[in-house]
Design brief:
Shape: globular
Number of helices: 6
Strand content: under 5%
Distance between the termini: 36 Å
Helix content: 55-70%
């Protein structure tokens, strides 16, 4: 079993946002998994890591996903980009969760 378990992830986020719709929770999980992949939950340099980084840092679809999830895309992009540039590598889901929580939109 890897250090990154999707089961723990799925149980963590919805409990913190009980008013989130099922659609918001789905998009939140997609974003959390992508951030985890971008920060090292998959082998370094893998296609999954490159795809996640490309999607988060450059794709307008990432902004749309964040809007649906109720999160601030630009804040999350900035934080993930900084962590990538600094060589941060996370193997703990709690690291990804903390990063996401700091990027949630407060006006939704």
């Amino acid at each position: 079993m890897s250090d990154f378990e999707y089961g723990n992830l799925a149980a963590e986020e919805p409990s913190e946002a009980p008013d989130a719709t099922p659609e918001q929770r789905l998009f939140q999980m997609v974003i959390v998994v992508a951030v985890g992949d971008a920060l090292g939950h998959v082998p370094n340099g893998s296609q999954a890591m490159r795809d996640a980084r490309q999607w988060i840092l450059n794709s307008p679809n990432f902004c749309s996903a964040c809007d649906i999830a109720g999160w601030d895309a630009e804040s999350l992009r900035e934080r993930v980009g900084k962590m990538i540039r600094e060589g941060f590598k996370s193997k703990l889901i709690s690291d990804t969760g903390r990063l996401i929580r700091k990027s949630r939109m407060t006006d939704k």
